[in-house]
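Q: Given only this backbone (231 positions), what sequence would you predict?
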């Protein structure tokens, strides 16, 4: 079976994401002085890409195919909120940390599995779009993992880091024939989840973070999107 260059490139991107994922799970930089600046910058990049990159790209095609595809955007945003809310409501305080950690790991793995499929889809359709998504996933991974305590179990950290690569492999070698409406439903879900997690969990709250680096992230990625013709 001949594998297209775009497919190989998407697998390379996914492998790099896996390496960054594992690295960010194994180090503990919560008390480093630069961490809040890095997280603020990464949050700026992630929210900019979601609003100016993924959302318009998804919306243009959704309008052309079927407006019902916009429900996938709402679904991605809402499902994370609903699952999280139910956990808080139906678990005692001493159980919360354990249950939330499990929920987050499961949801995060599934989400990055979908991101792996989306990464293959975008790279095959437009290599520039794939590169932009790849960069955004890297920053999204950084702001998700670095503020947390490092993983002591290497096997667990390695397994959780495989999600994007497994999704990409699944899209390249197994689920090779995907209907356009399914592909863009997955893109809509991914966009919804990014909007929820970045605004709900990743944007530094209150006195935390450095607004200058957040603005720098927004401006830098906006400029990149403009240069690439996406804005």
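A: Predicted residues:
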């Amino acid at each position: 079976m001949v594998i297209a260059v775009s497919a190989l490139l998407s697998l390379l991107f996914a492998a790099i994401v896996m390496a960054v994922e594992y690295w960010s799970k194994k180090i503990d930089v919560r008390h480093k002085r630069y961490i809040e600046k890095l997280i603020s910058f990464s949050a700026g990049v992630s929210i900019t890409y979601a609003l100016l990159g993924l959302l318009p790209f998804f919306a243009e095609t959704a309008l052309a195919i079927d407006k019902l595809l916009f429900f996938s955007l709402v679904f991605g945003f809402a499902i994370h909120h609903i699952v999280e809310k139910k956990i808080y409501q139906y678990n005692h305080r001493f159980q919360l940390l354990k249950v939330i950690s499990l929920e987050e790991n499961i949801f995060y793995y599934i989400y990055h599995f979908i991101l792996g499929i989306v990464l293959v889809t975008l790279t095959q359709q437009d290599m520039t779009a794939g590169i932009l998504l790849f960069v955004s996933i890297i920053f999204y991974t950084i702001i998700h993992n670095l503020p947390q305590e490092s993983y002591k179990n290497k096997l667990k950290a390695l397994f959780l880091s495989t999600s994007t690569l497994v999704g990409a492999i699944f899209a390249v070698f197994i689920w090779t024939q995907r209907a356009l409406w399914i592909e863009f439903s997955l893109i809509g879900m991914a966009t919804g989840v990014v909007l929820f997690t970045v605004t709900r969990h990743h944007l530094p709250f209150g006195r935390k973070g450095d607004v200058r680096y957040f603005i720098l992230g927004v401006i830098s990625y906006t400029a990149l999107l403009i240069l690439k013709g996406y804005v």
